[in-house]
Fold this sequence. Notes:
Layout: E1 3-9, H1 14-32, E2 40-46, E3 52-53, E4 56-57
Parallel strand pairs: 1-2
Antiparallel strand pairs: 3-4
Amino acid sequence: MPYINLKLVGKLSKEQKEKIAREFSETLLRVAGKPKDSLYLVIDEVSGENWAKGDKFFGLS
């Protein structure tokens, strides 16, 4: 059972999320032979002000 947790800055539309899910599931089927319905995908849309690298906050948008 593949599990993917995608974190990104900002918001996506429902259509964008559906396309991402299709692309991930098609790739896992093609590369790893995993059935599409076995994929669990969680998309975390994070505010840019919560992103940092080391001790530097970026305030991404």
